[in-house]
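User: Quick sanity check before I run a bigger batch. Here is a single chain. Can you write out its predicted 3D structure?
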Amino acid sequence: GMGLLPWSPLGGGWLTGKYKRDEMPRGATRLGENPNRGGESYAPRNAMERTWAIIAVVEEIAKAHGVSMAQVALGWTAA
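Assistant: Done. Predicted structure follows.
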């Protein structure tokens, strides 16, 4: 009888593959328009090796199953 609402299951877009290591975000996205926006801005996450280790594993799983990184991240959340 308890519900759960995951907060940011795509990690603010990081688990979709749209951000690349050491490449400032561009375009009409939250961080593309302002990479310094909010407490979890691009630079601190980009500097964390853990960020890229997780992204690499999500990408590897996505490729192995022929699905998008977002599908893996959402499946991980749902599981």
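The mean pLDDT is 89.

User: Great, the batch can go ahead then.
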